[in-house]
What we know:
The chain is of the alpha+beta class. It contains eight helices and twelve strands. Helices cover 33% and strands 28% of the residues. Strands 7, 8, 9, 10, 11 and 12 form a six-stranded antiparallel sheet that branches. Strands 1-2-3 form a three-stranded antiparallel sheet, with no helix packed on it. The chain has a three-stranded mixed sheet with strand order 4-5-6, covered by helices on one side.
Amino acid sequence: xxxxxxxxxxxxxxxxxxxxxxxxxxxxxxxxxxxxxxxxxxxxxxxxxxxxxxxxxxxxxxxxxxxxxxxxxxxxxxxxxxxxxxxxxxxxxxxxxxxxxxxxxxxxxxxxxxxxxxxxxxxxxxxxxxxxxxxxxxxxxxxxxxxxxxxxxxxxxxxxxxxxxxxxxxxxxxxxxxxxxxxxxxxxxxxxxxxxxxxxxxxxxxxxxxxxxxxxxxxxxxxxxxxxxxxxxxxxxxxxxxxxxxxxxxxxxxxxxxxxxxxxxxxxxxxxxxxxxxxxxxxxxxxxxxxxxxxxxxxxxxxxxxxxxxxxxxxxxxx
Length: 319
């Protein structure tokens, strides 16, 4: 019995020491606490051998990416060497640099975007998905004062990414985006440090505008009290970018212009319960809806109207 107690005490001490060392290492090297899992085994004083086939897999061999950076003889300018190539990098205005060449934040955005388009291209080839191209727009939000004097955090507070993907269906585009999220080392590193907002749409697909016109009965003030809650209900609608309402008191008419991210989100709204509730609202009469879609061609926005029709019928989109 004394021997069993002694062995038990030694194992508890050993396990507790391992846990203490792991905790100290996690603090020193900023390892998330969820990674450290060392718990003393209080149920059995005898260690259970791990079967060979259940042993933990060997640590995979890691690849290494490297670069060399050095200052030039011009203030605010550096040279970054990658393998057999190089880039000239300029300092930004808060540091007094010329900012004529690309700067470090440009490199950050470029790395994120390039990683995304190249992974999507590879996946499209592997999955036999026709791909006309991929375009990305990236932007970050940060406080330049932190870069200048360190008085506030210089960390990127938000990164916005907009993908335009040249697949035939939204499902294929979503699959390519999912692979980028899962496989990109740049994204998976940055997302641990800052919030990243990523959206996507099919290539050539522009925003969609929905014009809702109707008449109303009774005093204008009473109508405004009725329409105000409706505008509030529309705020969280997925893909709705903005809404603008106009009032014609002389003819007791009103209209709303709803701007959607794309035609798909506009169509989803038209098929929603909220749209059905609007057309069933007894205070609104002669309801008509005119959808528009925009097609970016050569960086010029062309707006093509649809035929006006009652909201009770589904719009027949052209083109």
